[in-house]
Amino acid sequence: MTIAYLFQIRRFHRRDLDAAACAANAACRQAYAIFGYDHPIARTRSRLMEALAEGQDFWIPEVSGVIAGVLTLRPNFIDKLFLAPQWQGLGIGSALIAKAKVCSPIMLSFTVHNRTIPPAVSTSATASSPASTAFIRPWGWLISSIAGTEGGRNGKRA
């Protein structure tokens, strides 16, 4: 049985910074566990503040008043998309990608685990974990081979 959650994607407010950093840090701890990810939340907060200072467009997924993650956009590029582990698999990440596509309807590229996925008009994709692979597949990306020493995978768009 799946539990349905009502959530909204809204503009970031300065008061969201700490909660967004906590959600992003939790997502990184899960995604990079194999590498022993142990960065303090202060470092994540600092990176989000840098993105704010650059003028990136920030969006927050919120579930019943709880900040579940953060999405930051540069023109035609998703710079950061983090979703806390307890909110993954519920369609929130897909809704964030859909929001990014609305904000950049002509061309959009993004990075999964520090590897860039070229714009949708291109043919290659990369991912470095089973979770990231599963997340990008529904968007039309297929993983075709293993590359690198960090478990990265190269792929092609279907």
Structure characterization notes:
With 158 residues, this protein is an alpha+beta fold. It folds into 2 domains: 1-108, Aminopeptidase; 112-158, no CATH class. Helices cover 30% and strands 30% of the residues. Strands 1, 2, 3, 4, 5, 6 and 7 form a 7-stranded mixed β-sheet that branches. The chain is globular, with a radius of gyration of 15 Å. Mean pLDDT is 76; it is low at 114-127 and 142-158.
Secondary structure blueprint with pairings:
Blueprint: E1 7-11, H1 17-31, H2 41-53, E2 57-63, E3 66-67, E4 69-74, E5 77-83, H3 92-103, E6 109-111, E7 116-117, E8 124-127, H4 130-136, E9 141-146, E10 153-157
Using brief descriptors, characterize the structure shown.
2 domains, globular, 3-stranded antiparallel beta sheet, disordered C terminus, 7-stranded mixed beta sheet, 158 residues, Aminopeptidase, 30% strand, 30% helix, alpha+beta
Brief synopsis:
With 158 residues, the protein is of the alpha+beta class. It has four helices and ten strands; from the N terminus they run βααββββαβββαββ.
Low-confidence stretches: 114-127, 142-158
Name the CATH superfamily classification of the largest domain. Gcn5-related N-acetyltransferase (GNAT)
Globally, the shape reads globular
| Rounded Rg | 15 Å
Number of separate helices:
4
How are helices and strands ordered from N to C? EHHEEEEHEEEHEE
Alpha-beta content class: alpha+beta
Helix content: 25-40%
Strand content: 25-35%
Calculate the terminal CA-CA distance, rounded to whole Å.
31 Å
Number of domains: 2
